């Protein structure tokens, strides 16, 4: 009888010790899991953001987007980040979580990209004549413009010495933005001597 009591007492002690060991093991696993989550929280956030972007698709690879101070074409998106190729041929890597926190403008789906082309002329030129010729140059670019979005001209500043104007175009292919700006300005400044002669 005494031996049975000893065995039972020993088993109870062993079970109690095992229970303590299991609790300690569970505590270690819990703390380890918390440490992993804290260490990789940014990556986990980016992965969660990637799933959101895949579901709602605010943009796709190949489309032109604007986020923060960056503007370019999406060339790749994975679980962690999105790569954007700018018009300057620079690759910008944006964490997916940033794309959820910031406003993203999808230029490929917003009816084209609005381009503002600044020009400066001497005050001796007739502004109406300058505006007319700027509009004509804009019309020459119609193959690159969004239909039903005619060119517009605004005078942004006029002083006794100079006038600053902006030709506004809405183009279908954002990749041509820089080239169009260059072409318009080149055509306009080549035309200036003729404008002076007609005054």
Question: What features would you highlight for this structure?
Answer:
199 residues, alpha+beta, Alpha-Beta Plaits, 2 domains, five-stranded antiparallel sheet, 5 helices, 48% helix
What does this structure look like?
Helix content is 48%, strand content 27%. It has 199 residues and is of the alpha+beta class. It has two domains: 41-106, SH3 type barrels, CATH 2.30.30.60; 113-198, Alpha-Beta Plaits (2-Layer Sandwich), CATH 3.30.70.100. The model has no long low-confidence stretch (mean pLDDT 79).
The rounded distance between the terminal residues' Cα atoms is 126 Å
Spatial strand sequence of the major β-sheet = 4-3-2-1-5
Number of domains: 2
Q: Figure out the total of helices.
A: 5
Structural class category: alpha+beta
Categorize the overall geometry: rod-shaped
CATH class of the largest domain: Alpha Beta
Helical proportion, percent range: 40-55%
Percentage of residues in DSSP E strands: 25-35%
| Strand count | 8
Low-confidence stretches: none
- Predict the CATH topology of the largest domain: Alpha-Beta Plaits
Secondary-structure map:
Layout: H1 2-39, H2 41-56, E1 64-67, E2 70-77, E3 81-86, E4 91-95, H3 96-101, E5 104-106, E6 113-122, H4 127-140, E7 152-158, E8 162-171, H5 177-198
Antiparallel strand pairs: 1-2, 1-5, 2-3, 3-4, 6-8, 7-8
Helix pairs in contact: 4-5
Short description:
The protein has 199 residues and is α+β, with helices and mostly antiparallel strands.
């Amino acid at each position: 009888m005494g031996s049975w009591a000893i065995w039972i007492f020993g088993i109870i002690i062993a079970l109690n010790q095992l229970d303590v060991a299991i609790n300690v093991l569970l505590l270690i696993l819990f703390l380890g899991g918390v440490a992993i989550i804290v260490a990789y929280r940014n990556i986990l956030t980016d992965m969660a953001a990637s799933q959101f972007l895949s579901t709602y698709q605010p943009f796709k690879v190949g489309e032109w987007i604007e986020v923060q101070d960056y503007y370019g074409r999406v060339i790749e998106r994975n679980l962690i980040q999105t790569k954007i190729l700018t018009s300057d041929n620079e690759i910008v890597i944006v964490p997916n979580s940033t794309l959820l926190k910031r406003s993203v403008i999808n230029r490929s789906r917003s009816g084209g990209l609005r381009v503002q082309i600044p020009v400066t002329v001497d005050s001796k030129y007739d502004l109406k004549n300058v505006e007319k010729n700027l509009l004509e140059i804009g019309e020459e670019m119609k193959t690159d413009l969004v239909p039903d979005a005619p060119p517009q001209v605004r005078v942004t500043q006029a002083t006794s010495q100079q006038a600053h104007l902006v030709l506004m175009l809405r183009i279908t292919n954002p990749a041509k933005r820089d080239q169009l700006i260059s072409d318009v300005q080149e055509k306009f400044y080549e035309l200036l001597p003729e404008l002076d002669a007609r005054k």
